[in-house]
Amino acid sequence: MARLGTRQPVHPDGRFRVGSITKLFTAAAALKLAGSGRLDLDRTVQHYLPGLLTPDFKPVTVRQLLNHTHGIAGHELPHKDPAWFLEHRYDTFDPREVVGLGVARGPRFDPGDRQEYGNAGYLVAGLVIEAVTGRPYAETVREEVIRPLRLRDTYLPGADHRIRGAHARGYERTATGHVDVTEVNPTLQWAAAEAISSAPDLDRFLGALLRGDFLTPAQRAELLAVPDAPGATHALGITRIELAPGLVVWGKSGDRPGYNNGVAGTLDGDRALVYSVNTLSMGGGQPAAAVRIITAAFS
């Protein structure tokens, strides 16, 4: 059901908080800017954002931001702790200040030495996009990705805590019952995990990235380039997932309180899947039934 206490079914085209699938939109926008000469993936954060990183950081390229080999630590705010979330769910965060919390912890490792997944690189990437375009990050994603692909359900909400249009509510199970966690100000996640979309839009988006002419062959190769780092699986906003010998899919998962989601497909378009489920536990894994469905879709 879409809302507890009702018989309202989940709308198959309904919107949901996509979480870290937002990273794929940020990476796509960066690739389009690079393709038009407005952004150089080999230039450094220190070049585009002087003073953001402290002197103890070695040069970090934009590409390293997007493939998680940058070494910038994330903030340590317990945003997936239910008590913290419920107290701060409507707070507005400034991305520079959030990045600063991680930068103050010092480098995690030298850029390029290893891959460590997190949000910090994409928050910085959003700031880089704003620096090179001179306009808000969300406007660039709309102009370079959402509008050209005619994604009618996808938007970046900024500080708006609502989900517009048809959507299923998200819940957290507690000792005293289910708490509705649908409404939240997503500015803490910003360019890393703020987007709202739908299954049809995500299916269209992934297909456009993996096939067709939305990206040039060179841009697509860049998108799918997994860095030469121990155990690396993430490329630019997208992940290489080997489900079985000879069965590789490319996609991205993402979660926010109340929602756990994913989009993935084969390069030839033969198989694709978009899902969104309610986990009832912030930061928790997918329910067993959802895992069986997801696995069966690619079997």
TrEMBL record:
**Signal peptide extent:** none
Matching InterPro entries, A to Z? AmpC-like, Beta-lactam-related, Beta-lactam/transpept-like
In short, the EC number is 3.-.-.-
A Pfam family in this protein? Beta-lactamase
Q: Which GO terms describe its molecular function?
A: hydrolase activity
What's the domain of life for this entry? Answer: Bacteria
Known PANTHER family for this protein? D-ALANYL-D-ALANINE CARBOXYPEPTIDASE (PTHR46825:SF7), D-ALANYL-D-ALANINE-CARBOXYPEPTIDASE/ENDOPEPTIDASE AMPH (PTHR46825)
Under which name does UniProt file this protein?
Serine hydrolase domain-containing protein
